[in-house]
TrEMBL record:
Protein name as it appears in the record: Anti-sigma factor antagonist
GO molecular function: anti-sigma factor antagonist activity
Domain (STAS): residue spans on this chain: 7-116
Region of interest called Disordered, as start-end residue ranges on this chain: 120-156
Highest taxon above the source species: Bacteria
Pfam families referenced in this protein's UniProt entry, alphabetically: STAS (PF01740)
Amino acid sequence: MESDTTLDMAVGRDGGHIVVAISGELHMGNAGLLGRLLTELVEQGCRELVVDARGLAGCDGAGWQVLLAIRWRLAGDAGMLRVTGLSPRLLRVCRMMELTEVFGLEPALERALAARSSHLPPMPVRHLPGELRPDDTPAVPRRRRPPESAPAPRFD
């Protein structure tokens, strides 16, 4: 039985924060999709990103590397990346890799959004097909599949 290796992403706004909800598997075959989305948001001027990982079933080294790269890029601009809603298994992985403070991990989305009270000026939004909508409500996530030719390794 083959596991579902898709990554679903939806982007929304909650006050001054941009929330990127991810679900499925984050791995070498699809981490670039998330990396491109987060990079575009940073390039648009977003300095406080929250990744809502309640639906994330698994994450390999490539996924953690993408999140770290965005975190360090934001840190250079006085920004912050917070990750919220990790499963107990993924939270243990973060603790083993000593990433809990790096990502400002919060168990609940509401706590991550309240972690910093500053309000950001509205950022210009470049709408991506299927990802961002003019009314800033989360779009219906599209199913993303890695290329058929390269099966993704699993690190469980």
